[in-house]
Write the structure tokens for this entry.
Amino acid sequence: MSAQAFLPVDLHCHSVFSDGVLTPAELAERAHANGVRLWALTDHDEVSGLSQARAHAQDRGMTFVDGVEISVTWAGHTVHVVGLGINPAHPGLRASLHAMRVGRQARARAIGDRLADLGFAHAYDGALPFAANPELVSRTHFARFLVQQGHCADLGEAFRRYLGDGKPAFVPTRWASLTQAVEWIRQAGGKAIIAHPGRYDLDDTRSHALFSQFQDLGGVGIEVLTGSHTAQEYAIYAQVARRYGFQVSCGSDFHGPSEGRIDLGGLPPLPAGLVPVWQEWL
Ligand code: AMP
Ligand code: MN
Ligand code: MN
Ligand code: MN
């Protein structure tokens, strides 16, 4: 296999500090084994795993970038904004993310109540053991519980039937604003990136509004290669990046060995004519 088969860069994944199933040490080992040279951990609304990840990355000779994936509510849609190259010790960033995690606790109880109403007793208590970080109970943990109990065949089914946006156990949540998320990332010295743009159900007008507002706020890029995109979406968002002059980020969005389409370090090479966000880091 040629050295060009996989991109040696992975700037989006999750550990047990949010909704991933591996520890930062296990992720570092897997990233290294899969040929990653430049790696970022981007837990949801949480930076507590970064010091461990950095130490284990450096032990293996990988260059590490501190990251985070911030949940945003924009025009009634949930949008994820990745921050790369942030200072995880920045007090403003830490306080803002902490406030978001506090809000997740009541939400998780409400999700548990809705699942109980649907006949899944003790769903909240059942989901908790899947969440190593008690401040970060996510829908993914409920989905893993439903799969473990045999109610759903896989995570996709749990989201399609119960947990996905607008489904019976979905609890509408007001996350950070786009303005706040970009500001927090920039104040902490990082670059703001729109995560997996192909996952949002936005028409062309709305997409343009999101991209141009994000750019006006100081957002620098979008993800093009991600485990959440199809090959067709790689081409679509490469074109979007060229049109808006966005830098491009890439990451598997790896959550666990038996979940998702793409392994850590499993992305293909970058399409031509794009400006990688990681140029200054690798
Ligand atoms: P939350 O932040 O609690 O709303 O959970 C969002 C997380 O759910 C995302 O980060 C994904 O990891 C996961 N997720 C969302 N939709 C799906 C899906 N259709 N299949 C599997 N996981 C999903
Ligand atoms: Mn996730
Ligand atoms: Mn995401
Ligand atoms: Mn993610």
The first strand starts at residue 9 and ends at 10. The first helix runs from residue 24 to 33.
